[in-house]
Each structure stands twice: as structure tokens, then as C-alpha cells.
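Let us practice reading a record.
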Amino acid sequence: PKMAERTKFDYIRTGVQAFVSTCLGIWFIIAYALYNGNPCARPVAVFLLVSGICQLVLTIFTLYSTCCLPAGTMTKAMPGQGGGAQTRVCLLACCILILALFMIAWWIVGQVWTFGINEAACDTVIYNTSFWYLICTYILMGLGIISAIGMRIYASCCL
């Protein structure tokens, strides 16, 4: 069977995702660099630093999986390919899974730290960056859930 080929949309989607993720990661690292040492904001600053590094690592994994692996290899077995290619795909998938699980747990920790501190006593750059990152994440999750429900309803009654 012939392997699927990547479309122009795949590369555009990956490029936009990589750009946004890189900007977000760099902004989190810059916010940490601007941190003034306020002990109240220390956990939130660490949350942003680790989140920024994870964003950049995830961007590297995404770019590698799109640009350096044949289309469909992350979802299908690769017949006729050597064991080295399958090992790379398996290793990449495991790294992405571990990173994603860590990022979910770290996101929950960041919520506890951000929403559990006194906003007035904290560094404003650190607090606002973390606060709005979490709020925007909630909004995007809500839009994703609403879109999925809408598509499911459309598919079940209109197709």
C-alpha cells in the first residue's frame, strides 16, 4: 500500500503551530528573566520557565515529526521500512506522550500556584502572564469541546 503524502495544509498548520508555540515558550522564558525576585511569585515564575522550555521542546518534536518522518508514520505501521525507522517513530511517540503527560500535570500545578496566591502582593508580569495563559487555555479548551460536540451533532443528524 502506498503511504499518504503530506498536503500543503499539513505544512502550514505545522508552521503556524510551531510559530505560536515558539513565541509562547520564548515569552514565558522572558517573563521569568524579568522576574524581580518577589518570593510570592517564585512558584509561578518557575511554572512559566518550565512551561516555556516544554513548549520549545514540543515544537522541536512537532517539526521533526512533520518534516523528517514520512506521512502517516505516526499513526500506521511502516511496512517495508527498516527497524531503525520504526524505532525512531516509537521513540518519538513515547517522548511526546511523556512530555504531554508532564505538561498536563504541570499545568494543573500552575493553576494551583497562580490562583492560590495574592495577586496584589505578586510580581505583575509573572502573575499576569500566568493568569492569562491559564484563562486562554480554558477558553481554547471550551471552544474545542463545543466544536467537537457541534461536529458530532451535525454528523449524527445531517449526514
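A brief commentary: The radius of gyration is 19 Å.
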